[in-house]
Amino acid sequence: MVFKDVVARLEDAFTRELPGAAAQAHLAPVPRRQWPAGFSAEQVRHAAGLLLVFPSTINAEQAHILLTVRADTLGRHGGQVSLPGGVVDPGETFEQAALREAHEEVGLSPDLVRVLGALTPLDIPVSGFRLHPIVGASDTQPRLTPAHGEVARILEVDINSLLSPDCLVHTRRARDGVAFTVPGFHLHGVEIWGATAMVLAEFLALLGWSSPERL
Q1: The domain that contains 125 carries what CATH number?
Q2: Is position 211 within any domain?
Q3: DSSP letters for 127-161
Q4: pTM here?
Q5: Positive or negative, the Cα torsion across 27, 194, 160, 6?
Q6: Which of 26, 36, 159, 192 is the most buried (most CB within 10 A)?
Q7: Rounded to whole angstroms, what are the CA distances from 142 to 67, 111, 136, 166, 182?
Q8: 75 near 150, Cβ under 8 Å?
């Protein structure tokens, strides 16, 4: 997809009601994990992540997004693909937190980013977070450096590759002895699933993506 067209579509989409949880659900694990019994809203920890759109230096017209592979040492979500992001500090807005975390994790200069809008917050019961995805755009491909001990790898993903049906996978996993199905994307030698895939499902829906029927 052409970078300028993607940005224009996103700007228009953020003036209207978002597809929200219905779009996220297309790439949610089945069954999806729920908050444990007795969990209260006061216990939710807020996190923010940046979904950055930018043109490639190889083909300036093609839109890419930024993702990271988390270091294996980072606990429960180690080794997984995620947006650059983290916990919202006291007094921060979600936008400020997303930009700060992206700077800390991959060296992205906040001055390069124009915030376009926020996607629908997503609860992640396994870690107790509510993720607030912030969508931003950079008119140039940024120079990035992974933070040692936090980011194992930086992924610069062509949006066209995410839209390809061949990119979609359904994997069987086990959790607490119970089998479940995990839809997601497979590219660059990694699998994008869970919360990140659900965020991408809503993002791609804003660009006209029709998610497939569940297998």
Answers
A1: 3.90.79.10
A2: no
A3: TTEEEEEEEEE-SSPPP--PPTTTEEEEEEEEHHH
A4: 0.92
A5: positive
A6: 192
A7: 13, 11, 13, 28, 32
A8: no
Convert the pLDDT of each residue in 85-120 to its tens digit.
999 999 999 999 999 999 999 999 999 999 999 999
Q: Is 135 exposed, middle or buried (0-12, 13-18, 19+ CB in 10 A)?
A: buried
- 175 falls within a domain: yes
**Domain containing 16: what range?**
3-34+44-206
Q: How far is CA 172 from CA 61, 157, 159, 179, 215, in A?
A: 37, 24, 25, 7, 11
The 10s digit of each residue's pLDDT in 149-186 is 999 999 999 999 999 989 999 998 887 788 888 999 99
Say if 215 falls within a structural domain: no
Q: Report yes or no on 212 lying in a domain.
A: no
List CB contacts of 170: < 8 A, sequence separation 6 or more.
Answer: 181, 182, 183, 184, 214, 215
Overall number of domains in the chain: 1
**Bridge partners, 81 (sequence order):** 69
Q: 103-106: which pairs have CB atoms within 8 A and are 24 or more residues apart?
A: 104/147, 104/150, 105/68, 105/146, 105/147, 105/150, 105/151, 106/66, 106/68, 106/144, 106/145, 106/146, 106/147, 106/151, 106/154
Tell me which amino acid residue 89 is. Answer: D
Sheet holding 168-175, edge to edge: 168-175, 178-187, 190-193
